[in-house]
């Protein structure tokens, strides 16, 4: 139905109606008259409906109260008196998105579902959670989700525990996270942006229950809320429900939630230490960030322009400012970022792989390069390419499986929160027109002059590595806790012990059947019984197999080339992974790397390169390894795309030693920054590499690749010839006709254009020889402890059930859900204090359990070891079992975009997974019973008995448990 402006519907007054062509939606701005709640509704035909309620929540300290509040409101409420309704929703709803997010100045609670009844249930639970949470009266919620003193017995040491406390310990284990913290506190010393909304572990224990409750009382009121609705829904019934059940219970009040603007502070240059492991080398581990406050959040045109400028200056392979900084020797890796979504956005230049002494060079280089650029003008080709890239992304609106409405809702808050028009960030055509015209009018040069060259409001912050820093800090905390305990009376100590034990008892006690019934859920009969069938045709084009997926793509063609990697040695594989990181950023015989980057940006939506492996669905020893060139392009530019694919795959050169050296050092620096943050991915592949060849192949692109790129960076500084020869060798061996498979997703016309143009590419491509030999991996159980300066662990244990005679079944998908949101959630997260844990079962028999940002090590392994016993006694009601099935489907049945549909087709093609097999697995999933889960206990027991273990984490914690490991190693250096 259409809503009429000035009319009132179920308590909501329609203030504005506007059609937004860019997102094909009729937008309505509404106000709930009684409570003062603001509402934005985007009406369209998208069945993936989105609801979000957000609150302006500027913090005044770094205790993390907004973040802890975000966790805690989802721990039981008035209508849903469970310990964690959020978990029950994850298990038992068909949501396509379900989460909550803390930002520096706001907290958002979005949900999405394609099922109308499910969508209403999700809204109900979330609205009750934010307005009537149990956290207001139950002190154990703050203890669990935030922090508490923990002591098992009076003679035990006193420690801190809490989910957010450990999450932020993990977050602050990365030097770039510490960098951001110091940047913001220096630039915004008197506003919300100068403190840590997520919580600083040093400050979190200062949060009291009184302050916790007061924060909710102040900010979680409809008058301070922003409600977002999106999609095809019965809007009148939706508004009736929100009004009748919730908003009508509140009166409009004044909420002082103003986000204050920081008066510019003098420019500053400062240095801070961060910890590295005792075996790490300090050389090349310094980080610098130069940050300017742009101070114009309510001008989306400026924001979009700065994203274009960031790409032009610092992200493109041809980026001139990046090149100048590298040439000046300030570091090995230079990047840039424009952070909007705050009242005073910031633009940053970051340098990694540096030394402390390079700090003084950074500002002069930036000033000189940008001053010259103002005089001579920015390269128009770079601006046009960057703007085309930005425009392509806006029009494609492909968010890798996440609902469009979710992203639109987040974008709206970038202006809405500060009193601006929420539609300004969605209606982008006028912005693009200004930016196009600005290429010829000096618009971008003016922005650089105004916001950077003549802007004294900036800070240059440096993070310097220091051995022993983490250990000293940890010891200071331990000493402080010991001194605090020593000052306590016996009754006070007994009180802490009693509270610790009471919390553990609460955590171990299941919700009552009555409480569980409060969460609405669907029936198995409501579920789609048929597995989604991605239809694709395989045909021959010039003797090349081509998989074609017909789809409506809004004039975009997805053309992906796959080259099998049979017949390569282990050493060659390292060079293949390196090639995937470097190709496309190097010179070719016809173009310099800068010219090539411009061509890619001018004529395509992007070209990506990766290496992956597809396990055979029936033979657990077999897999298909591939090198993939992934592209997207407007249909009219397919010819240009294929020319570029031909040029890059056949004519890339490795003779520019300086460029090759820069890229290798940049890749190494990136791994130094990211390794700990993605520790769960590293240890999962590493532990399974002890067992299976396909995971040995994957690990060759993870921890083993980190070791290789570290050695390559050292080699590059001396003699780069061997590396260049290795890259040239594997490139010539990969890109041959005999290895090639093509995938096209788009229209029939797109396919015919590719068919016509393909022979020109193949005519220059060697035929090559067909090979079926897989890379030889000797799978040895190493059980490694990877030592870092991090403050938490990633604990992985794995095995292979097929090697013990068991088979894969659809019920294992349900078991993943049971473990992630049942057993592991309770044992590892709730009781153990880790941020999370999960399980994966693969069709080739590999299985792995892994914790994330875990304060424990040995205790988590014990939890894994007791899993089979838990499963053998597993017993839940039919209703609870159905919820696990539903939750599993919500994870599997994500709405497919055209690119995801093409990817799924290729997965079917390479694995041999037929529609019949997929349907069988789905049938098994849908029919899963309690007895089916119990029957999996022997499978898990056998796999866990393989006793394969890999942990990445705190050096001290790993050394204290060295008897668990076969080898103790450090991060590559």
The total count of helices amounts to 36
Low-confidence stretches: none
- As for the number of domains, it is 4
From the coordinates shown, what is the CATH architecture of the largest domain?
Answer: 2-Layer Sandwich
In the CATH hierarchy, what is the class of the largest domain? Alpha Beta
What structural category do the secondary elements indicate?
A: alpha+beta
Strand content: 15-25%
Q: How big is the Rg?
A: 28 Å
Query: What is the count of β-strands?
Result: 28
CATH topology of the largest domain: Cytochrome Bc1 Complex, Chain A, domain 1
Mean pLDDT rating: 95
* Fraction of residues in helix: 40-55%
Oligomer: single chain
**Major beta-sheet overview:** 9 strands, mixed
Measured between the Cα atoms of the first and last residue, the distance is: 63 Å
Characterise the protein shown here.
The chain is an alpha+beta fold and 973 residues long. It folds into 4 domains: 8-182 and 194-256 and 512-517, 2-Layer Sandwich (Cytochrome Bc1 Complex, Chain A, domain 1), CATH 3.30.830.10; 268-402 and 412-465, Cytochrome Bc1 Complex, Chain A, domain 1 (2-Layer Sandwich), CATH 3.30.830; 544-656 and 691-762, Metalloenzyme, LuxS/M16 peptidase-like (Cytochrome Bc1 Complex, Chain A, domain 1, 2-Layer Sandwich), CATH 3.30.830; 784-970, 2-Layer Sandwich (Cytochrome Bc1 Complex, Chain A, domain 1), CATH 3.30.830.10. 44% of the residues lie in helices and 19% in strands. It contains 36 helices and 28 strands. Strands 1, 2, 3, 4, 5, 6, 7, 8 and 11 form a 9-stranded mixed beta sheet that branches. A 6-stranded mixed beta sheet has the order 17-18-22-19-21-20, with helices on both faces. Strand 25 and strand 26 (846-852) form a beta hairpin. The protein starts with 7 loop residues before the first strand and ends with a strand.
